Amino acid sequence: MRAVQIKQYGGTETLQLVQIDTPKINADDLLIQVKSAAINPVDWKIREGYLQEFIPYTLPVTLGWDVAGIVIEIGAEVSDFKVGDEVFSRPDISRNGSYADFIAVKANEAVLKSTKLDFAQAAALPLAGITAWQCLVDVGQLQAGQRVLIHAGAGGVGHLAIQIAKAKGAIVIATASASNQALLTQLGADQAVDYTKAPLSEQIEAVDLVIDTMGGTVQDDSWALLKKGGMLVSVTQPPSEETAKEFGVTGVFVFIEPSSRILGELNALVEADKLTPLIEHRFSLEQIVEAHQQSQSGHTRGKIVIEVS
Q1: What are the residue ranges of helices labelled H in the chain?
Q2: Which residue range forms the structural domain that includes residue 68?
Q3: How far apart are CA 209 and CA 150, in angstroms?
Q4: With 90 as the cut, is the pLDDT of residue 145 above it?
Q5: Same domain, yes or no: 84 and 147
Q6: Order of strands across the sheet with 61-62?
Q7: pTM of the predicted structure, to 2 decimals
């Protein structure tokens, strides 16, 4: 089968489209024919070696940890799926990934995809959707009527977080550049903020929850925007405990794991017409270098999808 692998850490020149054996499945696995995969920043961070101490791979490794496709084989202990099922998953990041014709995933990491999603949309949803849900709901405990600030609202996590927060009845403030202000409103944001126009402190009243997808100075500037007792949830860097204490708030770092429970929740929002993944770019496996370059540019609206078959 075809697969995009890296044999060493480095730039996009390390991405190689190769022929390898189809994965052998364990008793609790599904073998999925990959229809679509998606690009996430974690993919190129792994490729460049930033996470090698956190996730020690034995190279070569197949990248990609968003997948949608068709079940073609089930393990001996699997009873919840059958051959032919259309599924999607954010699989275990320590295993070979989804930039390939086939992928083996644990059955408890997959769910049947909503019929309202095509394969590309389904592949765009798992990693970013689980991230948004965990930040807002599981960790942030977002309640109806609360005010939430979502940074980079036009991005992969941000555009889903806006929709999830609105579905939960929150008042949503989201940031983006001037060119993406209309998109934030279309996604459901109650207040669209151009972060290039003026300091956020001059544009935003205090919020209960901040979702930080940027880190750095964006995180630094977010503390003062929180109400006392509020929470900053970051997916990029652990927030400073000292700074959180200084402002009388809580800071939490989130690194997600596979969750079929959350995929089920996302499916339910899709079925209720409250959640739709946005795809701006579609590439083939042969265009994987261009796909990674697009992701690293930091200027993608929504998600980048790899159409495998």
Answers
A1: 41-47, 119-124, 126-133, 156-167, 181-187, 216-222, 241-247, 260-271, 288-297
A2: 2-125+277-307
A3: 9
A4: yes
A5: no
A6: 16-19, 2-6, 61-62
A7: 0.96
